[in-house]
Amino acid sequence: MNLYLVLCLGMMGLRLSSADLDLSDLKRELDEQKERLAVLEKELGPNTSPAKNPAVLPELLTKRAQYGYDTVVFSASLNVPFDSSRHNSPIPFDTVTINEGNGYSSATGVFTTPRDGVYMFYTSVAVNGDDAVHAQLQKNGVSQCACTSTHYGSGSCMVIIPLTVGDKVFVKEVFGTHLRAEHLTTFNGMFVI
After folding, report:
1. Of 49, 82, 79, which Cα lies nearest the Cα of 172?
2. Domains in the chain and their CATH numbers?
3. Cβ–Cβ contacts within 10 Å for residue 82, how many?
């Protein structure tokens, strides 16, 4: 009986040592999750929201990257009027506000997917004068959504689509010639999940 008791206590000791290791791993993981939660809480906090205070955005993006969040987001607009009589080519949105992940090229007007996932894209087109404009947001040359604008108006479309590395997304004017600048014609995209 004493031998049985010694064996049982010995086995329990091994289990306790293993449990101690498991607890330390769990504690470390919990601490990491607390740090990530703090980053998210800061993003959602009333005084640190990027929507209310754009100056906090670079700091938040840096912290997100530090904790393993890969951010892909861009926002571009036309600052210079664009005469797209060429049609069939991407609109080169020349003013880039943000390009985290470096997927958008203002030289070509094309967003090249840097990582697989689901993305959201939004475009808005405005027209000069009595002209009319019809534009398409395209993935690899295939229309995903379209918008129309007439008589100093604007039109927009949004799409959520899956992409793989290397896919090309852009806005192409298919009808009309005079897109309005002054940052009224825009192209935006972001990684969702």
Report:
1. 82
2. 1-69 (no CATH), 70-191 (2.60.120.40)
3. 21
What pairing do the DSSP bridges indicate for beta strands 178-179 and 142-150? Answer: unpaired
Q: What is the pLDDT along the chain (193 residues), one digit of tens a residue?
A: 555 544 454 555 545 455 566 788 888 888 887 777 776 666 666 555 555 666 766 776 676 666 666 789 999 998 887 766 666 788 899 999 999 999 999 999 999 999 999 999 999 988 877 788 888 999 999 999 988 888 877 889 999 999 999 999 999 988 776 677 777 788 999 998 8
